[in-house]
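chain below, 473 aa
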Amino acid sequence: MFRMIRIVPVVAAAVVTAGCFTLAPRYERPESPVPEEWSAPMTAPAQASEQSIDTLQWREFVQSVKLEKLIELALENNRDLRIAALNVERARALYRIQRADQLPNLDVGGQFRRERVPPSLAVPGNEGIQEQYSASVGASFELDLFGRLRSLNRAALEDFLAQESSRRSVHISLIAEIAQTFLLTANDIALRELAEATARNQEEWFGLTQERHRLGAASGLELHQAETQVATALADVARYEGDVASDLNALRVLVGAGIPSDLLPQSSDAQTSLLTSVPVQLPSNVLLNRPDILAAEHALKAANANIGAARAAFFPVISLTGSAGYISSELSGLFDSGNRTWSFVPQATIPLFQGGRLRAGLDVAHVDRQIAVARYEQAIQVGFQEVNDALALTGSLARQREAQERLVNASGRAFDLSQARREAGQDSYLILLDAQRSYYAAQQALIATRLAEHANLVTLYRALGGGWEDDSA
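prediction:
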């Protein structure tokens, strides 16, 4: 008993020492492989927020109530996000399993043993049959003197944090995809309605041309050209109807549930501003807060911790095993005071020859860390490129939209004048036909340019790493 009392302080000191020591190299974040400033200038719209992009919640970015409700519905039902959340739960459970190895294992057991022994060893009167009953409480614990378990625990924790960051990345990607698909659907609906309006106008003009041809005031060429315009517009209507149906199917898959009719996109949604601007004048190190880059860094930290576990494998493994209980040849007297028993078994395992296994394991850990560093740097470079591309398009798309609006106004006035001159007999039908085509093409291009501008804003917001913070997470 007194020996056990003397051993306890030694074991406690060993446990405290083991909890504070690892052989993992000190982690240092690799230097960013991209410049501090963006290659493309970051413009400063008047309505831009000065809030940090990584804390700007998506509800502040989305200005449309309809789109906001649609995103909320998707966050509740989308299967990709649900799988990402389950992966987080799985990583958390694996971390708890690994963490349990650092704690003593305690179990209670009972045993009944019946055996036949040689007559020379048998107790007289029992014909060589012996019975034994036992009940005990056992404990085992590995002294993590060299930090092997602590390193593995750290690696499991970083894997869990990487999965959580990946879930955030799926979260912001889903929001961006919902916004872009919503805008695309509204854009195609607007194009379909434009084609329908154009087809109606062309059909009216075709009817007038038929009447003029019957009266001999229009040639057969004009009649067939008018019919060609009608057929072209009707073909556009059919094509855009297919695009809208495909867009709605994609939107339903992203949402993961049925979409109420009041949340479906309309053509007016393509004309209004659904999104706010992102914060301006941000340094490139804001990318370090992107969820995918955070996930890559956690993977790097896990690889760094695995080096400590591989190094610790070269050193002895010391484990303590003990038990206390009762043992008796009769069940009725099992728990009598005279049947008490205990054991204490320290054990040390020292690796002597492993055929190069331990050295190879350490080499693998070092290579895994180098791979993790390369992936981390690659993630930063990809993010930097995405932001630069979006910034480069921000100003050019705004100027393109302004020019396209002027083109629509000018081509509309030209079409009105050409139609009036045609009715007055001052211009040929070919001039009117060319004006109609130019006006129709200009309207289509304006809708497409507005879509590109809004979609680029969503891309910039996602590329900068905003939108994953959510009060409902």
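The first helix runs from residue 2 to 18. The longest strand covers residues 129-143.
thats it, cya
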